[in-house]
Specification:
The chain is mostly helical and about 625 residues long. The protein has a domain of about 240 residues: Glycosyltransferase (Alpha/alpha barrel). The chain contains 25 helices and four strands. The strands form two sheets. A two-stranded antiparallel sheet has the order 1-2. Strands 3-4 form a two-stranded antiparallel ribbon. The longest helix has 27 residues. The radius of gyration is 25 Å and the shape is globular. The C terminus is likely disordered.
Length: about 625
């Protein structure tokens, strides 16, 4: 293997990989997990400030709420972009949804009188951007977020109540299996919004005929809303959703409902010292699963994962598996959500990541038992089209409920990893069928240029705010595995070749990658691309080495920990996570080191040497 002169000698690559592994290992908490830190959010801060302010008007404020709202408004004002609008996270482009919510928060809290120039600039941005018409265009037929935004605008006096699109909250009392087929314009995770916000809007606009059923329906709907609220008070551990629910109930006079009381306590706990709020509490399960996978690869490469305690981390992760059917989505026991907090909901991506993370402990009976339940959970979730959705099988037609290539690829990798453990029997046959159907889905969703578009990650710079780099890199990992199985080898190999060709065509001259062709390079996206290239047995070496050199240079210059807003939260909300560049960058350096060492081993063995000699030669 050849290296760029003076840039990537094996010893230097190993040193980079070890440095990154040590830094990542050092982020482990005393509890055994990796908790990270999500970006502060203007949208979350605006909704939380409004909810706490309304609580004060209703006589429900505590002694600290006034100061909390004041600090939140000050942070919000300081976060305003030069064009007068707000982005979802600091440094993000302004967008109509967040800007409207920030403007509404200033009105509700009365801060508009103090910050007149801020409000004036915001109104000008909203007018230039197209106002409510632009908001509706942003979300199309998906009412999941349009109606909550307009509800807050109505509370602020910015729009009339009769302008709100209707949400049929009465349907919230139906079982999940019936809701799936109704196509009501909200996604599966938005049941609290359907009930609370729909009820709020209907209370202002519903006619007499519709109200006739309310003496029966309203108590049932509110009872379900209370039943699915986690003990933390936060629906999905999400600030905006919880704030919207609280505001809506307070707007119709149900200020002392237990849902409101619990939701307000949740909002108070999540405010940060600078006055802001994040969109969600944390991604601890997701980050821990990804990190454990990286550290296991590091051990395989002869790197030292200290000071991390991986055994403690796996115990922590196993304890996070959902052991009861979930009251929110109705899914069976066995999956994992994104956090250990009670508002988490089991989903395909986190369950697949956890399965990969605990795979090295497959010889332990309790791990095998947990894996069996998780695999059954994944198999049951698979959609008719062969792909995997996020939360619920066959829920509906909106994007965040459909199958997605990134979720499907992750599920396929998890099934492949455990297929060697469960070698025979009914489960093995089900896994084989599922993998075949999953591959068929991926083949159908591969774009003409060879790329794949993911669901949960994007790039603001992309013309369609997509991140084909993330999607293609993640799918390529699955295709490389399926190309090693006789029954799926040929179609998987052809798809992988096309994906690889697209991936390498996107690399910048300096070795980095962005979210798509011509987009600015980031550590996260370069790390994803390098990891995918390192997994390709017959992939080109030069792009891999140049990508590794790009990452190593950022590591040496201390620039590798600057996060980019590639995360795409519910309803197109951008976020960044402090540990993403560290995790994705470390995995790339580790996998690159493994690929280099394996190539060097093969070269020496081919020349008559021994594998031990080859390995020590790269150390």
């Amino acid at each position: 293997m050849t290296f760029p002169p003076g840039q990537l000698e094996p010893k230097r690559l190993r040193r980079w990989a070890q440095q990154a592994v040590t830094a990542l290992a050092g982020e482990q908490t005393a509890a055994g997990c990796w908790r990270g830190e999500l970006a502060s959010s203007a949208l979350a801060t605006a909704t939380a400030c409004a909810a706490l302010c309304l609580a004060g008007r209703a006589g429900m404020a505590n002694a600290h709420d006034d100061a909390a709202v004041a600090a939140g408004i000050e942070w919000l004002v300081a976060d305003q972009n030069g064009d007068g609008g707000w982005g979802d996270a600091p440094g993000c482009r302004s967008n109509i949804a967040t800007s409207l919510l920030a403007l509404a928060a200033l009105r509700i809290t009365g801060a508009d009188r103090r910050y007149r120039s801020v409000v004036s600039a915001a109104r000008q941005y909203v007018a230039r951007s197209g106002g409510l018409a632009a908001l509706r265009a942003r979300y199309g037929t998906d009412r999941t977020f349009v109606v909550p935004i307009m509800t807050m605008l109505a509370i602020a006096g910015e729009v009339a109540w009769d302008e709100l699109p209707a949400l049929p909250f009465e349907l919230g009392i139906l079982p999940h299996r019936l809701l799936r087929g109704l196509q009501i314009g909200v996604v599966s995770y938005a049941l609290p919004a359907l009930i609370a916000i729909g009820y709020c809007g209907a209370s202002r606009n519903a006619g007499r005929l519709r109200r006739m059923s309310w003496p029966v329906v309203v108590p049932l709907a509110l009872r379900r809303l209370r039943r699915i609220q986690p003990v933390s008070g936060g629906y999905l551990e999400a600030v905006p959703l919880t704030a919207f629910v609280c505001m809506s109930l307070m707007a119709v006079g149900r200020c002392h409902d237990p849902v409101v009381t619990g939701g307000l306590q949740f909002l108070r706990r999540l405010q940060r010292s600078d006055g802001s709020w994040p969109v969600d509490a944390d991604l601890a399960c997701w980050l821990t699963s990804l990190t454990l996978h990286v550290l296991e690869r590091a051990v395989r490469g002869g790197l030292d994962p200290a000071p991390a305690d991986t055994a403690a981390a796996r115990r922590w992760l196993l304890a996070c598996q959902h052991r009861q059917p979930h009251p929110y989505t109705g899914t069976a026991a066995g999956g994992w959500g994104w956090t250990d907090l009670p508002g988490s909901v089991p989903d395909a991506d986190d369950t697949a990541a956890a399965l990969l993370a605990v795979r090295p402990s497959a010889d332990r009976p309790q791990v095998r038992f947990a894996a069996q339940r998780a695999i059954r959970w994944l198999l049951t979730l698979q959609n008719r089209d062969g792909g995997w959705p996020t939360f619920c099988r066959g829920w509906g037609w909106l994007p965040f409920d459909q199958s997605a290539p990134d979720l499907t690829a992750h599920a396929l990798r998890a099934l492949y990893a455990w297929r060697g453990v469960f070698r025979s029997g009914h489960m093995a046959r089900r896994m084989d069928r599922a993998m075949g159907r999953g591959l068929d889905y991926l083949l159908k969703t591969q774009r003409d240029d060879g790329s794949f578009v993911p669901l949960w990650f994007g790039n603001e710079q992309h013309p369609e705010q997509q991140n084909p780099l993330y999607g293609t890199a993640r799918v390529l990992l699955a295709l490389e595995l399926l190309a090693q199985q006789a029954r799926t080898a040929e179609p998987a190999a052809r798809a992988a070749e096309r994906a690889l060709r697209w991936l390498t065509s996107c690399q910048h001259d300096d070795g980095g990658w962005g979210g798509g062709p011509g987009l600015a390079a980031t550590v996260e996206e370069t790390g994803l691309a390098v990891t995918a290239l390192a997994a390709c047995r017959n992939g080109p070496r030069e792009p891999l080495l140049r990508g590794l050199a790009w990452l190593g240079q950022r590591l040496e210059e201390g620039q590798w920990l600057r996060p980019a807003p590639i995360g795409l939260y519910f309803a197109k909300l951008w976020y960044f996570e402090r540990l993403y560049p560290m995790i994705f960058g470390t995995q790339a350096l580790v996998d690159g080191w493994l690929a280099v060492r394996q190539q060097a081993t093969a070269t020496v063995v081919g020349q008559g040497g021994s594998e031990v000699e080859a390995s020590s030669g790269c150390a």
